[in-house]
Amino acid sequence: MPVSVYLGESNEGSVSWIPKNEKNPHLLVVGTSGSGKTVTLRSLVYELGKSGIPSLIVDFHNDFDDLAESILDFKNITINPLDFSGGETAETSMYKVSSILSKIFRLGVQQEGVLQDAIIESYGKYGIGLKDTMHDGAIPDFNTVRRALEEKIDVLREERRATVTVETLMVRLRPLFDTGFFSQKETKKFDEIFMKTTVLKLRDLPTDEVKYTVAEFFLNKLKYALYKKGKTDELRLYCIVDEAHRLIDERSPLNDLLRESRKYGTGVIMSSQRPGDFSETVLANIGAFIAFQCRLDKDSKFVSKQMKIDFESVQNLTETGTAYIDFSSSDRSLKVKVKDYDSRTSGKKQIKNMRIEDTAKTSSDEIKIYPEKKYQTVKSIPNKKSKTSESLHENPENYSAKIITHEKTRTPLHWFFDGIKKSWDDLGLILSSKIWRAMLIAAIVALGFFAFNWFSILAIIIFFMVLGFRKV
Q: Please, where in the chain does CATH 1.10.8 lie?
């Protein structure tokens, strides 16, 4: 059955996004800050998860931590961009790495050439040729490249030649080298990403350049993991990129994913505050376009042109959460009030956040809510026979509250253990009562006459405690 994601309501009824019906499974969300863009991304991740589709989320602002089943914060993992085991050649890897770093760190032509030479030399030290597609031994990493550049500077100094180009390159790349993320054996297994929603956490990285580099290299690794996984007609993963304008260009792995990932069962969802940041080539690969309020006139004009809506209508999108949605399968756009994330999860949150036992009474039952354990549920309070086998947490969105019937009948054994438990909690209160102190002393004295052993004394004390709290 095709994946269907409910988006919200229009004047014509409910609106859902069915990726399989569109020319591509990719989706673009644009809108100014506070318009509902990020909330909609969260909703999409939630709904896809309900359909069994995990997401890989490139998160620059820690907006998705609570949705993650796995968080990659690079404190305990590393990846090696020079590892070409995904099916590419060492030469392809070299050009991709140098291209990404050149774009992000604004390297000149000469600096990019020096970097390429350092990568080639690093491969050579490990016996790897540029045309190799696999290597059984160790693979060089960024520490190897760094040493190659340092050796280059030493050689140039000995020959009294200019070292400015290499030294400037080293200065620009130093923040990247110093992180150590790319200078150890690769520890991330990409198969895990296809099984659970994963957040690539970037906010705490030292500089914007390092954040973008990590994101680019990770997406490049994802691309080759898809190649290795093979083609499929079924959706098995979505890649979510917030603030995608930071990454998208002709040299970006994200652009490669837009062109190729559909064949490998993967869709891409991107967001940006500026719709004009995306080229015609990128937009041509988008199957659905969601546009919230855009404050700048040129952005509103861009949306108006793309969606074939008059400019004034786009400008009047002032209500948070209201957007125009354009599907490639439709010849016109719809104005939709998108259902926000909190509304989708309110029932689930209510159950998850309950920490006390709420009690209500009916004529026949004592009804109690147990939020943290799996109990049988009833959909109708008065009818105890309407039990189902569904547990409290299996499908919480289907119920506004989950309840179970709990019989009043209690045995002496229940009172005995409840009394012990509560007596421990209130021991100070018990001993502060003169009557209780007198009774306990009398019991101990009586035992002194009849059966002086500590086991009997303890038994009498517990007996009085239980009697005193028989109405727990």
A: 90-179
Domain 90-179 has CATH 1.10.8: yes
Which one, of 404, 409, 360, lies nearest residue 384 by Cα?
A: 404
Tokens 């970037």 belong to 202
CA-closest candidate to residue 262, choices 17, 68, 28, 27:
27
Q: Report the predicted TM-score, pTM, of the whole model to 2 decimal places.
A: 0.71
Query: In this predicted model, what pLDDT tens digit does every residue of 295-344 receive, in sequence order?
Result: 899 999 999 999 999 999 999 999 999 999 999 999 999 999 999 999 99
Burial (CB count within 10 angstroms: exposed 0-12, middle 13-18, buried 19+), residue 428? exposed
Pairing of strands 55-59, 5-10: unpaired
pLDDT of residue 55: 96
Q: Which residue has the tokens 């150890």?
A: 184
- Enumerate the H helices of 14-141 as residue ranges: 37-50, 90-104, 109-125
The H or E element spanning position 360 is strand 359-361
H helix or E strand, kind and range, residue 213: helix 208-229
Q: Please give the CATH topology (third level) of the domain spanning 5-77+188-338.
A: Rossmann fold (3.40.50)
